[in-house]
Amino acid sequence: MLRVMIVDDEELAVQRLEMILSGIDDVEIGLASMNPQEAYDYARTHPVHLAFLDIAMPKINGLRLSTLLLELNPSISVVFVTGFDNYAIQAFDLNALDYLMKPVTLQRMLKTLDKARKR
Prior knowledge:
Blueprint: E1 2-7, H1 11-22, E2 27-33, H2 36-45, E3 50-53, H3 62-72, E4 77-82, H4 88-93, E5 98-101, H5 106-118
Parallel strand pairs: 1-2, 1-3, 3-4, 4-5
């Protein structure tokens, strides 16, 4: 079972990822939040295998949040989900598992989950 967290400052983006992921048998959504600090606090006390992070968020952006999460637990796989393609190099420099462009499709999500299962 893959326990995932979703963090995006857009409610519709969170809902879309929840809808896609909730239909996949071996995925458990541990947290879906619009608040990066809440996500960090959650990861401090709960195991997380896969974190889906938006990049452009206020206060703590997704790149910074990924660094904080990996300091807590280096085995967390990070997937950036964004509308901006210009952060891809930075994302992969942070060892991101994948980089998804919005809107995410089920087919693209399944490819990402296959990568996560193989890791």
